[in-house]
What we know:
It contains five helices and eleven strands. The protein is α+β, with helices and mostly antiparallel strands. It has a single domain (11-190, 218-230), classed as Protein Transport Mog1p, Chain A (3-Layer(aba) Sandwich). Strands 1-2-3-9-8-5-4 form a seven-stranded antiparallel sheet, with helices on both faces. A two-stranded antiparallel sheet has the order 6-7. It is elongated and about 80 Å long.
Amino acid sequence: MTHVPPPEPSEDVLGGRWRKVEERRGTTRKDLLGLARVTALHHTDVYGNKALREEVREKTLGRVDRELMVFFVNRTTVVPSFENLLGSVSRRQLTPAVRTLARTKLEDELRKRGVYDLRINGSHDVHGETGRKVELQRLEAVYRLPDTEVEIDDDRSVEFEGGDIEVNGWLGAWIKRGEVYVVGGVYPADDLMRQKHVELTDAVELDIDIDLDIWPRPYRHEVFDLAESVVE
């Protein structure tokens, strides 16, 4: 069977701020609710907020250069199809299984990017152009920023300790024509500020401040807009 790509966010919503940073395909096999053995062919596209990445890279003199805000879309084709299984498995039973699958996929995505301690806290509904309603679960997690080294002159540098930043995210899933769709987005929910006192000479002292100034901002509305643009 040929892999089918997930829907793409509209260019209007991407707005030049987002770009596709990764595309993956794969196949897994698992038991579904203990009733059937299925083969899942999945295709995931990951988008990064390049505007935020470039801003933080500039503020940290190039020392922090990574995706701090990501959005992903996944489409999974199940064989045998969910539609064929619905005779023995109700859609009510399938919904928790799909959500579990969605969370597992998101945890895998986040773990690769240094995010851990994922928790669910609340929900929000989004509506696609077709009128389909998808419940997004609100996520809370922690992102570990690495230590950052700042050069003072040719011979000396100062290391700033990294730290944990709280992050929020949203995760949703739905079934369409027997296929599973998953959307998710994560963004900073905290700022990182550090201060360092440096004695350059016996007579010269220097205070260095780092403030990423990345919170608060309307990140969640960007995630909602992206999710709505791909809900079919």
